[in-house]
Design brief:
The protein contains 18 helices and 27 strands. It is 36% helix and 23% strand. The chain starts with a strand and ends in an 18-residue tail after the last helix. With 612 residues, it is α/β, with parallel strands linked by helices. The structure holds 6-O-phosphono-alpha-D-glucopyranose. The site of 6-O-phosphono-alpha-D-glucopyranose has 16 residues, from helix 9.
Length: 612
């Protein structure tokens, strides 16, 4: 939510800032702005409502703003409507302090009142303007020392922030501070970069520093100096980012989402390979020992969005294979429920970004309660990855489209590997079955590829659904978990109302919504539940529904019931989600394309949800 990029160095800043922001537009895209200064000159600020394109046009792709030091921002509105006035950067009354911010300042009203009493005036409805003016207030109070000004403001601010600030008295310098909102710093050949996420600066550097919570940094003359809250200097070592820059480009695909859908065979393979050694699962890189796997009596899975759907799927798999009690919770619910937690429990937090505010808060709560925590995370060095006791990194590479596809698929793989290993060390499966499950996992990349090779049929069918008003996804057991993700993919990018229902539950209310022609998609990958779901589909058909079936090759009698069927290859039934989800991702994608919508940046959404 909101993207920040900053640069100070030898090149012109504005084009670098715009380029970086274009990689962060998935974090928010209702307005954008730049502040650039040229040596001792006064800082120039340009803002535009709407997509980044508007800002690029206004600044002649950055060329109209001369200067080698600057800060940029792309916004996802929290306080104050999307408008040019509310867009960042924000500035103090005399232009002394200029800043951009990602996060939410919870006590902004109280701070605003204090500043109003001190004679400050406000032009926007944002909490960011309050933060900038608070820093200005302390800057004037504490002898014009930026670090002291910022740390005094940090002590007063409640909430979350990643801030990048320029001071008129300090040309060529950028100051940053962070609490609970992501921010990285890159250094290369005497140039310094700041970004909310790696893809923004990957083209320029792979040497990044992770700035910790309640820490500050000063970027000047190609070096970074870090400070703690007391203003004392602290040492940090850079980390090498392994993602390649091309991975964050569209590579000829029309949309990032389509590219990322096609990257799934490789992402799944890479994630699998990261824990497979000599034909067995080796969790030593994750840091979980066999004794630990044996000792847990309960697993809690906590996540948001699609990562939560991965949790729902993995619950079935873990329970089935390892006979372990599993509880799945939405992070935003988990953190506010005072439920008794099993002290021998393992809390697994699943998150692509590793920064989702509710997931991070749930992780902290679990740690506070003394439970062991494991993060399944894609972004190396993100907050959840750093704070969890153990991390299983998914190797999806940078995911840019707001609607997740490849990160979701790799999270599933992490969940399967854990389940299979749990099952073996807890004596729930034989060595033979273990080998068999691993062989099935190894077939998944090729099977996913096979589904992708046959995507034209889905494209054709999806194009005909562009005018649908409602779509229902139904399934039982794991097929219900698959339906949840299929339904989310549909609604979030096509804006068609869709719901996922446990097929057996339809009769308890939802079936009254079925009308002539309503599309009902039945997911049937679980043989034991096949006939039951077919019956539920027939019930819908009797009430006028138009049926699509999604099942495995061989179940051809579904054609007696459904008007259109998609088949996926057979796999171990507990891994079926990995295959069945692919046609549903393609469905959502092609319906959105058919409607002419902005697939990668659906309205009102942001990829990284760093506010509650
Ligand atoms: C947003 C994204 C979803 C994602 C969810 C959780 O809503 O659009 O695709 O599943 O956040 O994000 P995380 O980074 O924690 O996986």
């Amino acid at each position: 939510m909101c993207g920040i990029v900053s640069y100070t160095g030898h090149s012109q800043a504005a084009p670098i800032l715009l380029d970086g922001l274009s990689k962060l537009e998935y974090r928010g895209y209702d307005s954008a702005g730049l502040a650039v200064r040229n040596g001792e000159n006064k800082t120039r600020i340009v803002k535009a409502k709407g997509r980044l394109k508007a800002l690029a046009e206004k600044t002649d792709n950055g060329h109209a703003l001369a200067g080698t030091c600057g800060i940029g921002h792309t916004r996802w509105a929290t306080h104050g409507e999307p408008s040019e006035t509310n867009a960042h950067p924000h500035t103090s009354d005399n232009g002394n302090v200029v800043g951009v911010h990602n996060g939410i300042i919870e006590n902004y009203q109280e701070l605003k009142n204090k500043l109003l009493r001190k004679g400050y005036e406000f032009y926007s409805s944002t909490d960011t303007e309050v933060a900038v003016k608070l820093i200005d207030y302390y800057y004037k109070k504490y002898e014009h020392t930026p670090v002291d000004a910022i740390n005094h403001a940090m002590v007063r601010i409640r909430g979350s922030y990643a801030l990048a600030i320029m001071f008129q008295d300090y040309p060529g310098e950028i100051y940053v501070a962070r609490k609970d909102s992501p921010m990285i710093i890159g250094v290369e050949n005497g140039d310094c970069y700041v970004a909310s996420d790696v893809p923004a600066i990957l083209k320029y550097t792979r040497n990044v520093y992770y700035i910790g919570n309640l820490e500050m940094a000063r970027l000047a003359n190609g070096t970074v100096t870090f400070y703690n809250l007391d203003g004392d200097e602290i040492e940090k070592k850079p980390t090498q980012i392994k993602w390649d820059a091309e991975a964050a480009e569209k590579a000829g695909y029309e949309h990032f989402m389509l590219k990322e859908i096609h990257e799934q065979p490789k992402a799944v393979q890479d994630t699998l390979n990261s824990v497979l050694k000599d034909g067995a699962i080796d969790l030593s890189s994750v840091g979980l020992t066999e004794e630990e796997l044996q000792s847990f009596s309960q697993v809690y899975i906590v996540a948001c969005g699609s990562a939560y759907h991965v949790g729902v799927a993995c619950q079935y798999v873990l329970e089935d294979l390892a006979q372990l009690p599993v509880r799945v919770d939405l992070a935003s619910e988990f953190r506010y429920r005072s439920m008794p937690l099993d002290p021998n429990g393992l809390v697994i937090v699943i998150s692509q970004s590793g920064e989702t505010a509710d997931s991070l808060a749930a992780l902290r709560l679990a740690k506070k309660k003394g439970l062991k925590t494991l993060g399944i995370v894609n972004v190396v060095g993100s907050s959840i990855a750093r704070e969890a006791d153990n991390v299983f990194y998914t190797l999806a590479g940078p995911e840019i489209a707001v609607a997740t596809t490849k990160a979701y698929s790799t999270q599933l793989i992490a969940g399967y590997c854990l389940a299979v290993q749990f099952a073996l060390v807890r004596g729930c499966i034989s060595k033979g079955r273990y080998q068999d499950l691993i062989s099935q996992l190894q077939c998944l990349p090729e099977q996913i590829q096979k589904i992708l090779d046959d995507k034209e049929r889905i494209q054709w069918f999806a194009a005909k659904q562009a005018n649908a008003r409602d779509v229902f996804f139904i399934g039982r057991g794991l097929d219900y978990a698959i339906s949840l993700e299929g339904s989310l993919k549909m609604k979030e990018i096509s804006y068609i109302h869709s719901e996922a229902y446990a097929a057996g539950e339809l009769k308890h209310g939802t079936i009254s919504l079925i009308e002539d022609g309503t599309l009902v998609i039945g997911v049937l990958t679980q043989s034991e539940l096949y006939e039951k779901t077919i019956s539920n589909m027939v019930e819908c058909k009797s009430r006028g529904a138009y049926l699509m079936g999604l099942t495995t090759y061989g179940n051809y009698n579904i054609e007696d019931t459904a008007s259109f069927t998609v088949y996926v290859p057979k796999t171990e039934e507990c891994f079926a989600t990995s295959l069945a989800v692919i046609p549903l991702q393609l469905m959502g994608y092609y319906v959105s394309v058919a409607k002419g919508l902005d697939v990668d940046k659906p309205r009102n959404l942001a990829k990284s949800v760093t506010v509650e």
